[in-house]
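Lay summary

Proteins are chains of building blocks that fold into shapes. Our project writes down both the chain and a compact code for its shape. Here are two examples, one after the other.
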Amino acid sequence: MNKKNTSALCGNKTLFKTQINASVVSTNKYNRLHWSKKHKLAKDYGWLVAIAIVQGNIQPVTVPAKIKFTLLKPNKAGVRDHMNLSAVEKIITDWFVKKRVFKDDSPDYIASTELEIKIDPEIKEQVIIYEALEA
């Protein structure tokens, strides 16, 4: 079975799917950062989200969505547990709200979030796949 089509087979329509080329800071490390570094990191992700929206022609989501956040890594070096992706997922989701792709990040609009880490030896650098599925 082709994994790219599994969301359609499960009844979840893909609303949008985008790739963000960025390193991921673990939630543990993020929590220890000085507020100014947190602000800069969030701003950097904001630019990457803006680029993804334009390049992917991402339109506003008008139905409740399930977010699937996948970190693709070229190897197992520095593999974190899934929950350590939550800070970056939250920052990116907040930027999609600020850019009006989602009206809000409350449960009325973001029904659930799935965090995943996959190893793909064919890639050279880690990549974030951010996908919104119909909930």
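And here is the second example, written the same way.
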Amino acid sequence: MWVAPSWGAGVAPIDPQELITRVARRIVELRRAKGMTQAQFAESLGCSVQYVGLVERGLQNLTLAKMAQIANVLGVTIEDLMKRPRRANLKIVKGRPRTRG
């Protein structure tokens, strides 16, 4: 269990796993907003679809270099990746995005 260090008044503790989960959900949200599949996203990043799946499920701890690469592919800043998802209850599900037709 992670315990926040005491740094004094005014500094809110950050739970690392909550941050990883937040970034993961935000990546899903931004990728879908661009209309990209996981396969297209993986190809743009030069990595496997399995890696993208781990990232989007919050099971992969990203380096700053990989976060910068993801931000560049999605056309956002690293700060944008760290914002809370617009839909806090965004569910991560397997499968292809549904197309309307």
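What can we say about the second shape? Residues 16-82 form a domain with the 434 Repressor (Amino-terminal Domain) fold (CATH 1.10.260.40).
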